[in-house]
Each structure stands twice: as C-alpha cells, then as structure tokens.
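User: Can you fold this complex?
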Amino acid sequence: METVLQTIANGILVGALYGLVALGLGLLMGVMKFLNIAHGTFIILGGYVSFWLFNLWGIDPFLSIPVVVIVMFLIGLVLYKLAFSPLLRLPTIGMRIDTSMLVTFGLIWVLDNAMTMLWTPDTRTIITTYTGETLKVFGTRFSITGLGGLGVAVLVALALYFILSRTYFGKHIRAATQDAEAASLCGINVNRVYSFSSGIAIALAGVAGVVIVSTYSINASGGLSWLLIAFVVMILAGEGNINAIIPAGVVFGLLEAGSVLVVGVPYRQAIALLVFIVVLIFKPQGLFAKKD
Amino acid sequence: MLEISHIDVYYGDLQALWDVSLTIGDGEIVTLVGSNGAGKSTLMKTISGLLKVRAGYIDFDNIRLDRLPAHRIVELGISMVPEGRRLFPQMSVLENLEMGASINPARQKRHNTLTWIYDLFPILKERAKQMAGTLSGGEQQMLAIGRALMSQPKILLIDEMSLGLSPLLVQEFCRVIQGINKSRKLTVFLVEQDVQLALSMAHRGYVIENGRIVDQGDAKLLLSNPRIKEAYLGLEQENKTD
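Assistant: Here's the predicted assembly.
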C-alpha cells in the first residue's frame, strides 16, 4: 500500500514537471505550426542561466525564475526574427512544419556545441539547503524541490490560462491560432502575436529548465531526452490543446511511475516511446481532444 | 475615397486581375458582379492587403494601400467580411466580436459598438456565450458582419454575402446593410454572384469577366442591360423583345 501511494506521489510530482516541459513546445505548435526540435535544448539553456545565477550570486533557483523568463523571452524574440519568421512565407502549413523541424534541428547542433564550449560538458546541478529534503504526509514522502516544481507548473499553467482566456492579447493569440488570415482582417498584427508567442514559448522552456536543474541535473547535450518527453505529453494532450498539457503531463508521469513499479527503472524511456506510439495509433487527436 | 487604378494581381505566376480600375465614393453602395472565378474575391483580398499588386496602385483618402499589411488597412478604416465568414470557431460569439474591435480607437468604444451590433442582430446577444462554430449559417453571417463592423470602418467590404443563405435571410441582410448605409453613411463594397440581388441593392456596379472589368455604370441601367440579362440573369434576348 505504501509503495503504491509513494508511486502515485512520485508520478504526480514528476508528471507536473513533464507538463511544464511540454508547454512551450505545445504553444509554438498550436499557434504557429512550428515544431521546435530544439525545445529541449532551450530547456537546458534556461537551466544554465539559473545555474550561473546561483553559482555566481547565490540566487535561489526558484527566485531566479523571473530573471530566466526575461532572458529566455528575449532569446525567443531574436529566434523568431532570425529563424522562424522567414518560414512564414512558405506557401503551405505542411512545408512550414517540415522546414521548422530542419531549422531547429540545425539549431540543436549550434546550441549544444556553444554550451559545451562555454560551460564544459560537465553535468551541472544546483544544491541548495533544501535539496534532498522531503515532506512526509501520511507516510508518503514528497521531495521539497519536487513540490516546488509542482507549484511552478500549476502557477505557470494558471497564468497561461488566464492570459489566453481573459486578456486581449491572449485572445489575439487564440484568434491567430484558429485563423491567422481572418485575424489579420480584424486588425490583429499577426506577426507581433507570433513573435511574442515565440518569446513566451522559449521562456516556458527556460522555466522548465530551472525546475530540472534544481530537481535533477543538466548537461550541454541533454536536451533531446527532454524533447522526447515534451513530444509524448504534447501528443497526449492533443495538438493545440494548451490547457490540457499539465494534466496530460500528470497522466504520463503516473503511467511511467506505475510501469516502473511493474517492469523496473531501466525501461523508463522505452515506456515513454511505447505510450507515444500507442496514442498515435489509437487516439492521434490526443486523450484530451475537444469534441467538435 | 477608394481608388483602384490599373492593377495587375498574380497568384504566384498566374495572373488573376488585368488592368483593373474601380472607384468607390463616400457613402455609396458599389457592387462588383461576375461569375465564379472571374476575380471578384481576388480583388477583395487585394484591397484588404492579403494579396499584393504587381502593377498599378490602390489609394484610400490619399494613402497608398497596396504596400501595407492587412492589419494596417483595417486601422485606416477598411473592414472586410471574408468569403465563407472565417469566424474563430472555438471562440464565443462575444469574443469574436471583441476581436473585430482589435484596433485602437475601436477598442475604447467597443461597448457602444457592441450595443449597436446587438440592436442590428438581437440573436447575437442571446448567443453571446456560445461558441461561434455552433451557430447556424445565417447567424454566422450576422456574426461575420457584426465582427467587421466592430472596427467602426469607413468602408465595409462584403465578399459573397448571400452564399448558402435562404432568400428570406438574404432579404433581411439587404435591409440591414442598406439601413446602415443610409443611417451611418457607411460606404459598402459588395461582391456577389447573385447579380440580380447585388444590382438591385447597389447604386453603381462593375462587371468582371476573366479578371477584367468589362462593364460599369448605374446599377439600375446595368440591371436592364440586355447583355448582362443574358449572361447573368438567365433571361433570353427574346423574352425582352416580346
């Protein structure tokens, strides 16, 4: 019984992080039909920003989030200007998806190597006074950093929900997502919407990086394994269904934790891929797809 | 106020409009009629900035339109009801109307404009919270027109208003559009496949064939023009001489 409860607790904590990891990828895909293969690499970059803020100035990782958000948002704007916006001139959405994959694939090599050169290939992690501490509730242990990650994931998801459903700017994002041309006929500057969405998506990757570097660890070429998780969660949530991403992450976290209990830790990644394939075959529109 | 002068427009390498010139004056209802594929929607998309001109120019109150992006053209006071409505299906009726008031002066006045739109189409008020994708065809067209009016335009462009609507609804829309034109001095440019309807509603008309303007003038005169009767109204020459 205790192991089951502990497994569920672990599944929820790691699942919230999985959701957070997928938010930025899902946003770019939903809004612009850009598949950012370098998403995991930007997660790592955000982790490094937090790592250096902690190492050089002793800033707590969770308190460094606002700084990471601003830095990564600006990187997202530059990325849009240099790499994404030229792709909008492609005649079809399919070509846009394909080319965005190629462009961001190239970006992985550039960023991976740049980060390795700048910061060595060493694995980095942030050790604070509360790292490794746990909170015990009814015999179930919750790690403090894991709870912090859960809190961040929930707050970020709520903020994103609020922006998209209540603010004029968020509604512009949704309008441009549903019909970019009709949005421009309403007087919406779609180019600006895209540029800010890229900024937000990269900032979200950065936030996930902060949680990862304080809960687990990062290294310069570790982005791809996080990309895989982000992919699986995005597919589970259903394309363009931003609000379902954190719940989908939790579902995936629970699935993974449960199956680790049954078949053992070494098969963790195999299980991720299996879930990915099964969902694509049987429910390609996602588990949380809206009924139209 | 709107002057289109000798424009050529291409889709890729394919020329769609040839040397098209057209003017729309303040407070007029002008229509462009022609058969399917003649270039009507192409002209609409060009005015609203979705397509670029290769030659010629479009001028609105002495401002060159043809180099501006679509959202800037809305800011200048030209609003379009696109063919097929093009609503945001997963946004509510109210949100769709709010999107129509995205540009700045209109956004400040959106509550007043909204009251007016709800007066024109009371059903939209009842359905305010409903997703636009769940509306009936007629309601969707009301919403599309309402959304375009939310930007408080000087010119309203309507692409295929009557498409897929019952004759009764079409009559209703004509009444509303003519009403706004009279009471608000709103200039209207109407593109229609239903030639009879368009010419009976408008002050002046243009006829487009294979991407070229082939006829123009007073709408009533065009309506009685035997060539147009034969080509578009399905009336034989003999019927008239009888």
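The two ends of chain B are 43 Å apart (CA to CA). The interface with chain A takes residues 48-50, 69-71, 74-75, 79-80, 82, 86-91, 95, 98-100, 102-103, 106-107, 133, 147-148, 151 of chain B (CB under 8 Å).
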